Amino acid sequence: MENKPKRDSLAVALDAVSDRWSLHIVRAVAFGASRYTDILRAVGAPRDVLSSRLRKLTASGILRPRSPEKGRLAGYELTQKGRDLGQVVLVLKRWGDAHSGDDVPPVDFIHDVCGEVFVAEVRCRACGKPIRSGEFSVHRASQDC
Known about the structure:
Layout: H1 9-17, H2 22-30, H3 36-43, H4 47-59, E1 63-65, E2 76-78, H5 80-99, E3 109-110, E4 117-118
Antiparallel strand pairs: 1-2, 3-4
């Protein structure tokens, strides 16, 4: 009998980006890299791995090819699904800011609406309060655990 995690929405999300390079690629494209060589430079993955991950992210609807220029692929851009994944990256950035060493420079993000630096925070949709570790429980739609 194989020990595999139950298929639920969290497992699907983790499968989409569970390899070593996918979130780095999403980060690079979100930061403005679009062409293969720009992404390669930003990520540092081996070429065959990068090509494979770009295909995977495109097939899963996180990236899409940009319109061709003179018959050549103009690069990649995030889809809405990929931009939504960016919110996850912002929360991971907050974790990295808190737990990386002093020798790692932070990256600040500016909220374009108000012009101030912001920190991503997970909040309860109902009451608006921040969610902290230990303040939630798991409810599965199907109790076939």
